[in-house]
C-alpha cells in the first residue's frame, strides 16, 4: 500500500443535520408505534405524520454513504488507513453488541423467552432495531470494499451500483428453503423487518457516488451547491414519477406506505416515495444558511451522536414508557406526540453531554500520552541525565521553552483531529 499525506476531512454540518433528522423521524415513528397500534391512531396521525417517517431509514442510509465518501474514502491508501480500518471494524462490533442488547430491551416485557433467544440467535428478527444489524454488517464490510471502490472510475461505480441492485432483485426470486434467515439478511424476506445488505447496500453505494463531489475540501462550497441541485432534481423526478404512476389511488398508496407496505422487501412505490423524499431532504439540508444551521443545531447534535441517540430512545421507550410507566395502549395520540417531543429534548441533552464527555476523555488521554507536560516534569532530571544540572541556566531555559512549544503544537493538532472526527 502506498503512503501519501492527506488532510483530515472536516465535518459537514448539513450531513449531521440530515442524519439527525433521520434519527428524529425514527424517534417519532418508534415512540408512537411503540405506544399505540395503527388502529388507535387518527387519520391525520397516519397521513401525513407517520407517512413522513418513512423517509427515516432511507435518509439515514444515503447520508451514511455520502459520509463514507467524505470522511473515509480520502484516507484509503494513506498512512491513516490501517488505523481507520481497525476503527471501522471496532465500530461495527460495537454496533452488533448494541443491537443484541436492544433486542432484549425491546422484547423482554411481552415476548416469551423462546422467541427472545431465537431473535438473539438471528433465527427471528425484531421490528424496531433491525437497522443496526445492517449498519453493523456494512461497517464490517467497508474496510474490505472501500479500497476497491476508490480505484473504480465513475462509470465503474455506476455499473457496480446497478449490478448490486439488479442482483438483489434476482435473488429475491430464489427460494432459500430452510435458510430464509440468510435470504432476509442478504435481500430481505416477506413479513420480516430486516434491512437486506444488497438492496440497502445499493443505496449506500449511490450515496458514495453522490459524496464523491464533496471529497475535495478546496472546492467543497461550490460542490455542495452542485450536489444540492442534483439531489433536489433527482428527488423531484422520483416523487413526480411516484405521483404520476399512482395518481388514481394516490391517497390509498400513501396510506399503505405509512403502514410499511412495500418496505420489506422494498417495492417500487415505497422506494420511489422514500428515496425521492430523502434526496429532496438532503438537497434542502445542503442549502441551509448559517442562520438555519443555528436553528437546526439540535439536529446537528443528534446527528453527531446518532448511535447514542438511537440506543437511548429505544431504552426510554421500552423500559421507561412501556415497562416502568405502563403507557402501552394507555395514551392518546396527542399524548404520544407529547412523549415524543420530551424524548427528543432528552436525546439532544444526552447527545450533548455524551459529546462533551467524549471530548474531555479524549483530551485527558491525549494530555496523558502526548499532551503538554507540567513545568515540574519538564525540568526534572532523570538518573541517567545527572549531568544536565551542570549545564548553563540559559541552555536549560532554552530547552524548556522549545519542549513546551513542541508539546503544545502536538496537543493542538490532536485537539483539531478530535473535533473533526466522524460520528455515526
Question: Would you give an account of this structure?
Answer:
With 424 residues, the protein is an all-alpha fold. The protein has two domains: 13-354, no CATH class; 370-424. Helix content is 72%, strand content 0%. The protein is built from 18 helices and no strands. The chain has helices spanning 13-35, 43-52, 56-72, 81-107, 113-120, 131-150, 154-172, 180-187, 197-211, 220-246, 250-258, 268-286, 290-295, 297-304, 306-324, 333-369, 375-379, 393-419. Helix 1 crosses helix 14 (297-304). The chain is globular. It starts with 12 loop residues before the first helix and ends in a 5-residue tail after the last helix. Residues 1-9 and 371-391 have low confidence and may be disordered.
Overall pLDDT level: 88
Based on Cα principal axes, name the global outline: globular
The count of β-strands is: 0
Order of helices and strands: HHHHHHHHHHHHHHHHHH
The share of residues in extended strands comes to under 5%
Structural class call reads mainly alpha
**End-to-end Cα distance:** 27 Å
How many helices?
18
**Unreliable parts:** 1-9, 371-391
Count of domains:
2
Cα gyration radius (Å): 25 Å
Q: Quick one: biggest sheet? A: none
DSSP helix fraction: over 70%
List keywords for this structure.
18 helices; mainly alpha; 424 residues
Blueprint of the fold:
Blueprint lengths: L12 H23 L7 H10 L3 H17 L8 H27 L5 H8 L10 H20 L3 H19 L7 H8 L9 H15 L8 H27 L3 H9 L9 H19 L3 H6 L1 H8 L1 H19 L8 H37 L5 H5 L13 H27 L5
In short:
The protein is mostly helical. 72% of the residues lie in helices and 0% in strands. The protein has helices at residues 13-35, 43-52, 56-72, 81-107, 113-120, 131-150, 154-172, 180-187, 197-211, 220-246, 250-258, 268-286, 290-295, 297-304, 306-324, 333-369, 375-379, 393-419.
